[in-house]
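Marked as duplicate of an earlier ticket. Keeping the data here for the record.
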Amino acid sequence: MPEEIDDGALRAVLDWLDGGAPPERAVLRAAVKESLTAVATAAPGRSVEVRVPPLGAVQCIAGPRHGRGNPPNVVETDPRTWLSLVTGRLTWEQALQSGTLHASGSRSSEIACLLPLS
């Protein structure tokens, strides 16, 4: 079960995204894991892997399942970019253009339709 992020911790993450001081690592990890779980819940499946190293990864999007080796559809980014995407502070296109988001495979862009999280 993902760690619960309280209002104060959420405020710390949002302040950081808006240029403030970085949150504690446990708070950052909880925010990333909770948002990844929300994406996987909204789009269950195993066709696309979303990675936010070193804090978490999930598989989501219905369709063909991946079993071994590198998955064909991967979304990978850093924690700050990921949280900026899920909060609507950054668009998918902006993250791709800046090089902070890497999306490979024909189905990886389906994650964009889930962002920002409500």
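See parent ticket for discussion. Residues 51 and 76 are 5 Å apart (CA to CA).
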